[in-house]
Amino acid sequence: MTDINGKVALVTGASSGIGAATALALAEAGVKVGLAARRTDRLEELKADIAKKGGEALVIAMDVVDPASVEAGVKKLVDAYGAIDILFNNAGLMPLSDIDQLKTSEWLRMVDVNVKGLLNTTAAVLPQMIQQHSGHIFNTSSIAGRKVFKGLSVYCATKHAVTAFSDGLRMEIGEKHNIRVTCIQPGAVATELYEQITDAGYRQQMDDLAKQMTFLQGADIAGTILFAAQAPAHVNVAELFVLPVDQSW
Ligand SMILES: NC(=O)c1ccc[n+]([C@@H]2O[C@H](COP(=O)([O-])OP(=O)(O)OC[C@H]3O[C@@H](n4cnc5c(N)ncnc54)[C@H](OP(=O)(O)O)[C@@H]3O)[C@@H](O)[C@H]2O)c1
Question: Is 1 within a domain?
């Protein structure tokens, strides 16, 4: 087992959903957590929850799309705790729509946050992990990073990019720098992700789906992340494909 008590993590998208649940779970396991997102009021609430449970967290205002914001956030965490052992690249969005609706600003926003944002945080954290000769990077892909669904074409393209990048990253920095890379591919998780869908038909479809099946909770994904983070040091859980039992598609 890898003892993560006293380690330092950076969690992007920690203001809600999977990120918030994972930040809490890491803190409960004794990890000092950098809580990164744009909505710092939410992060302050989470920090207070963590403190109530005896954990330690640092609020970091970060827009993953802006490299300067990311670099400043990483510096703040390293200045406070002296290391970064775990990076959870989790920030993302999924405004579904059909391609012929040409919601191009939503397409580009997904590319910016889901792909470029993840590259920005990886680039900002890697020098620290390379210097430490240790670390664990978790990248959030999706079932949509394994196959394609109608209405999710651009989202699927961004998540396929995350899956591909994660595999290449693992090959390049695993043996050379002793850094583990885990690509997480969840199915349906009950979070605020669906609230950003501006297409009324797809929004209704997601609401109907939530009534028909039991979605995962953020805490379910957090549990799998802790499992991979706590695996023995020579074990790299390269992929975590986690679905609700009744998600047959
Ligand atoms: N829910 C699912 O069914 C599901 C399934 C597979 C994969 N995923 C993936 O899981 C990840 C987390 O999503 P979630 O379901 O937990 O949704 P969520 O509750 O909507 O959380 C998304 C998080 O991303 C952050 N974020 C968005 N844009 C950002 C930016 N520019 N800079 C920094 N942070 C930003 C948000 O924080 P701020 O708005 O405060 O910045 C928020 O904390 C995403 O990558 C998503 O694609 C979700």
Answer: no
Predicted confidence at residue 11, as pLDDT, reads 99
pLDDT band at 185 (very low <50, low <70, confident <90, very high): very high
Q: Report yes or no on 65 lying in a domain.
A: yes
Q: Does 3 fall in a domain?
A: no
Please indicate whether residue 10, judged by its CB atom, sits closer than 6 Å to ligand 1: no
Query: How many separate domains does the chain show?
Result: 1
Q: Is 81 in the active site?
A: no
Q: What is the pLDDT of residue 66?
A: 98
Q: Which residues share a beta bridge with 32?
A: 8
Length of the chain: 249
Distance CA 176, CA 230 (A): 21
The per-residue pLDDT for 4 is 98
Max Cα–Cα distance, the chain, nearest Å: 51
Give yes or no for residue 113 CB within 6 A of ligand 1.
Answer: yes
- Residue span of the structural domain in which 105 resides: 8-242
CB of 113 closer than 8 Å to CB of 162: no
Q: What is the CATH number of the domain that holds 89?
A: 3.40.50.720
Per 3-state DSSP, the chain is made up of helix, strand and coil in percentages (nearest 5) of 50, 15, 30
Residue 111 domain-assigned? Answer: yes
